[in-house]
Amino acid sequence: MRHPIILVVLAGCSLVLAGCMGRDKDGVDQALDSVNAVDATNLSDIMLTVGDPREAVSYFTRATNEHPERIDLQRGLGKSLVRAGQAEAAIGVWTRVIAMPEGGNDDKVALADAQIRAGKWDAAKATLNTIPPTHETFERYKLEAMVADSEKNWKKADSFYETASGLTTRPSGVLNNWGFSKLTRGDAKGAEALFSEALSYDSTSFTTKNNLVMARAAQHKYDLPVVDMTQTERAKLLYTAALSAIKQGDVTIGKGLLQDAVDTSPVYFEEAARALEALDAGGKRG
């Protein structure tokens, strides 16, 4: 894949070389080093954003093998491994980064994140405990909240979630996590409020919409909330509400919601249709 940014940089390299004709070799080498540094920086940025995670891992693996002393490349490898779903491997990289002279508190946060993704909650807590309280960042408090959640320390979790949401202009993700935490502890009303707030920041998140429907259904409120949704999303949300209703014993309501889901879906909704057939068959046997 060719990137316009890189092509521009390479074209600029030709101009630099042309301008260096007649100068001493040191001047040419210095110019090349400068261009190569810009080229490498641009490519690293691309790999960390729009690049395929597996390609990014390959790129940063090669780069760190060639320049193991460069902490920016080590960080790029750690981030890429997390993006590629290789949290275990990322732990080793972030541990190495922290041991480097330039390693800092943000790197420890990244290590804790990888440890949580790998299911190593105790290790993540220990890592977070090494970070001074003066290091107040969104990522740090988001992870602190998740660790507190895992320990069912609800008071501490709520405090961390509240702090984290106040440290970012895009709190939809952490508000969704907080809402799910509330839902799992039986506070459906509190969860509903948090999911609704999360959608006010990001109305496109289907996960949050689905969670909102579950929170409302837990209160026996089976009508869909007034949020933006596609026809396909509407069918899936009706299906979620239907299953919640049936699980809570509101079978008649659930059956009606399943029929609505089948009728609403723009394509054949196999799961909903199968659930509806099962209910009909059960009713006939009864």
Automatic annotation (TrEMBL):
Alphabetized Pfam families for the sequence: TPR_16
What keywords are assigned to this protein? Signal
Q: What highest taxon heads this organism's lineage?
A: Bacteria
Q: Does the keyword Calcium apply?
A: no
What Gene3D superfamilies would the database entry show?
Answer: Tetratricopeptide repeat domain
- Keyword Signal assigned to the entry: answer is yes
Query: Where does the signal peptide begin and end?
Result: 1-18
Descriptive protein name: TPR repeat domain protein
The record lists the organism as Rhodobacter capsulatus (strain ATCC BAA-309 / NBRC 16581 / SB1003)
